Amino acid sequence: MLAKLFLASLRANLGRTVLALAGIALGVALGLAVHVINQSAIGEMQQAARTLSGDADLSIRAGRVNASGFDENLLEIVAANERVQMASPVIEADAAYRKDVPNTSTGAALQPMQGRQTIKFIGVDIFRAALLQPGFAGEMYPSDDRFAMLRGDHVLLNQAARAVIGGGGADENTPRKFSVTVGGASHSLTVAGKAELAGYAGPLAIIDIAGAQTLFNQLGQVSRIDIRLIPGTNSADVARALASQLPAGVTASTPEQADKQSAAVSRAYRINLTVLSLVALFTGGFLVFSTQSLSVLRRRAQFALYRTLGVTRGELMRALIAEGAVLGCIGGIIGTALGLWLATFALAKFGGDLGSGFFAGTAPVAQWTWPTLAFFTSLGIAAGVAGAAIPARAAVNEAPARAIKASDGEGATSALPPTWTGFALIVLSGVLLLLPAFDDIPWLAYLAIAALLLGVLALSPIASTRIIAIIPKPKNFIAQLSLNHIEKSPGPSAAGITGVVASFSLMIAMLIMVVSFRSSLEQWLIGVLNQDLYVRQGNGGSGGGDSNALNTSTGAALQALAGVAQADFLRYRSIVLDSTKPEQPPVTLITRPLRENVLQSLSVLKRAAADTNRDKLPDIWISEAVADLYGYTPGQTISLPLDGTTHPVFVAGIWRDYARSFGAMVIDREVYLKWTADDKINDVSLKLSTDANKANVIAAVRNLPIEAKLDIADAAEIRKFSLQAFDRSFAVTYALEIAAIFVGLAGISATFSAQAWSRRREFGMLRHLGVSRREIATLLGAEGALLGALGAGIGLLLGMAIALILIFVVNRESFHWSMELHIPWVTMAVLSVALVVLTSISAVLSGKFAMSKQVIAAVKEDA
Amino acid sequence: MLEIRTLTKRFGDTPSTAPVFENLDFVLNTGEYCALMGESGAGKSTLLNIIAGLEPTTSGTITLEGQALDANIDDAVTLFRREKLGFIFQAFHLLPYLNVFENIALPLRLNRWTEEKISARVTEMLASVGLGDKRASLPRELSGGEMQRVAIARALAHRPRLLLADEPTGNLDPDTALQVLELLRSEIRRNNTTAIIVTHSEIAARTADRAVMLTRAGLKPRLFS
Ligand SMILES: Nc1ncnc2c1ncn2[C@@H]1O[C@H](COP(=O)(O)OP(=O)(O)O)[C@@H](O)[C@H]1O
Ligand SMILES: [Mg+2]
């Protein structure tokens, strides 16, 4: 019976019902879309890794993909283990395809210019590797027999690679010869056949391992050993047993552990994005709250009637909650469908990284599971129930005798949570902030933000009343009226602005965070890029790749150029600092000449005390992430694992690094060269002499008589690109913020359309008293503006508080980097004004009813 | 002061719909207090709305103090209401978020009176409706009779030329109604206003100077024995 009445009411208030539905649906859709996109991107990355290892039980690797390899003699040690059935050595490296190869069957003009194309080379012992991944066996072209592959310059290409070298991937058009550049030298290769690895979509070339070692100049080295164990063996056990035999920096991991590691790279980014998208859902919940509050207020007399007729409190409460749940469920289902569509669309259009660069180059298909969908739908239901609960409680607690006669706005404050809950939530938020992060994700900080937000929202009606009380009386009588209305009936108004406060504060918080981050990043880039020109080969290096490294003679040639005052050689290595943490991605070891001015450019945050006894140990400078993740502090001596041996080093200080959130360390190149024979160079930075002409130097670098395809970049240019990449990665957050703001505005609009109706007699009376339609519009506009201003004011303060949490807690804990606080006052002021204007406009537009003829007749209604 | 000639009102555009009233003639002299009676649905409220310029006429003319009224010129008619008319409603319609003083001051503020004059006039009105001690109360703290007294004070505060009251005692019990009617009458006299009161009640109608009956056939004088 009651259910029917309530359904009828939902239908009768169709406009508002639709609005609440839309709020929930939008929130759920954004949350789900972001989640699916992230999952799909990560899934594709892991699948690619798994495809390349086939069904190996264990893999031994030195750090991450692209990391330098390790000694191939390890193969014998591993194979000697009685639980290892078969061990397959692998070299994995990228090479740049050289377009200007002779005898190309298709003209260069026909090839799509897609910038530099790289091909991933997998060097394997094909007969062994095929046991783990049958795809490696491939299919030889008729002219070549299987043993041609042993020749070292013969490769099998997959479809994507064949497309790169020309011929559109079709067999008959594929050129049989092509060239790649490695280490500055060009190498000619023969296509012997094709190999397709299901689950790996990028350009791939299979080559014999000995050929790969020659090609990539890694004689005696391998990048990975894939292991098949005797059936029935516990792979984690073997991994542990092998760990003691492996040199420092080399780990044995199961596919599951490897998955975890690859996921860890982008985890913080993904979680931040997911949380941000949940904000939209949160705002959607507030929309339900405001629409439900209003609809409950409007039906007070009706509820009182039910109560008088014998409906119990419990029944009424359940009915109202059920109403919210129905709304939430429908909104959740619509949102889930919309979210899936959004994810599919975004993946197809922008790729898995939404432009952020975390999963560059992948174009995964949407991956989702039914439990995920169920979870996001249930979030919609939760938002609906939560939004309905507070007004429902107020409705059932009201004495029927009073409500049956009450007019709409009166006593509405009872729909709001008591003031003490606001203070309690804010205190709770403070307590949560004092607790440490766990699991490397700042869960508690996020909870603290939620508690702070809810606390401030609970206090905002009181705050609004207090603030309005101190606003001087405006001259305009109409404005006075609107001020009076909001001051005396804070209930519905406060319900209306919750959405705006929530979304605006989060927008402000994100804005301050992004601006602080951006200007800190810019400062950092200016410091780090303090030389004039940077030279590297291909997409050479910060990952620590060896294939594109330059040799010392190229370095020397650069140094010797006219106009070059100084050339610094930089080398990057991936190091596993702590082999007991196989899921922790490796840190980057940067070797470079460490002069005092270099240190200045590093933005050093903390130094070891000058009087620390350093035992003549070499200095190492660690980034904040290394300090956070490994607990190292300046003044401490640590051991640095490098090519199988460990070297004691002195932690001289901590520097800021925005490039590598898993940590980076800097040591002097001289020291490094004493330890290893590795004199390769990933980057060369050039300081020009004062009288040098930059363009001439660039031309001279281009004309160097070497094979290498050198990339020359201006410091300013790199800065520009870095900041562009930064802006791109945050672009999607702006979209989320704007979506949230519109959900918030929908709340304002719901409030005003509801009030236009519930205050119809008031407006009718005013029309009788000689208030014109335009003045009613002014009244609504002024109320909208006032609410907007209150929302903006509270939102600004709250947003700044949240920004502080984001900057000093969330970023610190999830990315392990600090930043300087920058508050963009002007932008904030502009956004606030825009919000006030928007709320004012939406108030007038949604209050159209108040200007209609119907309000004139409404004065005749018996109140 | 009020002259209605051949007034016809029909809702909707089609001439086929039956008019609420047709060819109505009515004259009200300055200072007169007239009761308007009639069955429910006879068109009393509609007539008041037409006089107030809130409802357009179908045909006929209305002149108030020599000025023709056209509800289609919204701005002019709004200003006219603001300055020259006072209203009393059955359901009081006090603004719940304004106190008694501010509710009475509402028309004065709309007419841009100075603060001083507002204060003096509202105080005077409060005293004469007997609510001097309630100036700071909110409407929800008042009884029905008190609310309607505030409404009377509001309706007359700006010294309107014409007062329109639509069943002002409809929501009150008979005793209170009588008190309010007495007060209304004396306030109309004191403020020298012309007034029309719509009522069902003969007792109420008797407090007026004369009474007219709105029927299908037009307006007829209603005489009490
Ligand atoms: N806005 C309107 N649209 C259509 N018909 C109306 C409208 N207002 C009133 N009426 C009709 O006009 C007639 C007179 O109504 P009203 O003036 O309210 O009567 P009274 O006040 O005498 O009870 C009624 O039949 C009513 O249904
Ligand atoms: Mg009527």
Detailed description of the structure:
The complex is a heterodimer of chains A (863) and B (225). The longest helix of chain A is centred in the N-terminal third of the chain and has 44 residues, at 255-298. In chain A, helix 2 packs antiparallel against helix 8. Chain A is of the alpha+beta class. Chain A has 26 helices and 22 strands. Chain B has a single domain (2-221), classed as Rossmann fold (3-Layer(aba) Sandwich). Chain B has a six-stranded mixed sheet. A four-stranded antiparallel sheet of chain B has the order 2-1-4-5, with no helix packed on it. The radius of gyration of chain B is 18 Å and the shape is globular. The chains are: A alpha+beta (863), B alpha/beta (225). Bound molecules: adenosine-5'-diphosphate and magnesium ion. The site of magnesium ion has 3 residues of chain B, from helix 1. Residues 11, 20, 38, 40-46 of chain B line the site of adenosine-5'-diphosphate (ADP).
Topology:
The complex is a heterodimer of chains A (863) and B (225).
Chain A: H1 2-12, H2 14-53, E1 58-62, E2 70-71, H3 74-80, E3 84-98, E4 118-124, H4 126-132, E5 139-140, E6 154-157, H5 159-165, E7 177-182, E8 185-194, E9 204-208, H6 209-215, E10 221-222, E11 224-229, H7 235-243, E12 250-253, H8 255-298, H9 300-308, H10 313-350, H11 370-397, H12 400-403, H13 419-434, H14 443-470, H15 477-488, H16 490-528, E13 533-537, H17 552-560, E14 564-575, E15 587-592, H18 596-601, E16 604-607, E17 619-623, H19 624-630, E18 637-642, E19 645-655, E20 664-668, H20 669-675, E21 683-688, H21 694-702, E22 710-714, H22 715-758, H23 760-768, H24 773-815, H25 825-846, H26 854-858
Parallel strand pairs in A: 4-9, 6-8, 15-20, 17-19
Antiparallel strand pairs in A: 1-11, 1-12, 2-10, 3-4, 3-7, 3-11, 5-8, 6-9, 7-8, 13-21, 13-22, 14-15, 14-21, 16-19, 17-20, 18-19
Helix pairs in contact in A: 1-2, 1-10, 2-8, 2-10, 2-11, 2-22, 8-11, 8-16, 8-22, 10-11, 13-14, 14-15, 14-16, 14-24, 15-24, 16-22, 16-24, 22-25, 24-25
Chain B: E1 2-9, E2 21-28, E3 33-38, H1 44-51, E4 59-64, E5 67-68, H2 74-84, E6 85-88, H3 100-110, H4 115-128, H5 144-157, E7 162-166, H6 174-191, E8 194-198, H7 202-206, E9 210-215, E10 218-222
Helix pairs in contact in B: 3-4, 3-5, 4-5, 5-6
Adenosine-5'-diphosphate is lined by residues 11, 20, 38, 40-46 of chain B.
